[in-house]
Structure to design on (98 residues):
C-alpha cells in the first residue's frame, strides 16, 4: 500500500472555496480503482490547516490518480488557496491484521 499525507495551509479568505473544491475531489478519488481511502482531516491545533490522508493499493493506482482529470483540475487551482507551500509525504505500508 501507498500512504500519502498532503498537508495544506489555506488562505483564510479562500477556505470556503477550498472546502467546496475538496468535496468533489474526495468523491471522485474515492471511486477510483485502487483507492483504499481518501479523507480530508482538519487540524485541531492550527487554524486553516488540513491534511489529505490517502491510501492506495499500489503505485500504479497513485499514478492513475495523479493523471486523472479531477486531480489535475484541482492541482491546477490549488495554488490560489494556499497560504504556504504544499507539504506531501509518501509512505509504503502494510495493513497489520490483529
Amino acid at each position: 500500500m501507498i500512504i500519502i499525507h498532503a498537508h495544506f495551509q489555506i488562505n483564510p479568505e479562500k477556505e470556503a472555496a477550498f472546502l467546496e473544491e475538496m468535496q468533489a475531489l474526495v468523491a471522485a478519488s474515492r471511486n477510483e480503482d485502487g483507492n483504499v481511502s481518501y479523507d480530508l482531516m482538519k487540524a485541531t491545533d492550527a487554524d486553516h490547516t488540513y491534511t489529505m490522508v490517502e491510501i492506495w493499493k499500489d503505485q500504479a493506482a497513485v499514478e492513475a490518480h495523479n493523471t486523472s482529470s479531477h486531480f489535475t483540475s484541482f492541482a491546477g487551482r490549488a495554488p490560489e488557496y494556499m497560504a504556504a507551500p504544499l507539504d506531501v509525504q509518501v509512505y509504503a505500508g502494510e495493513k497489520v491484521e490483529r
About this structure: The chain has a mean pLDDT of 97. The longest strand covers residues 2-9. The beta strands are 2-9, 35-42, 49-56, 87-92.
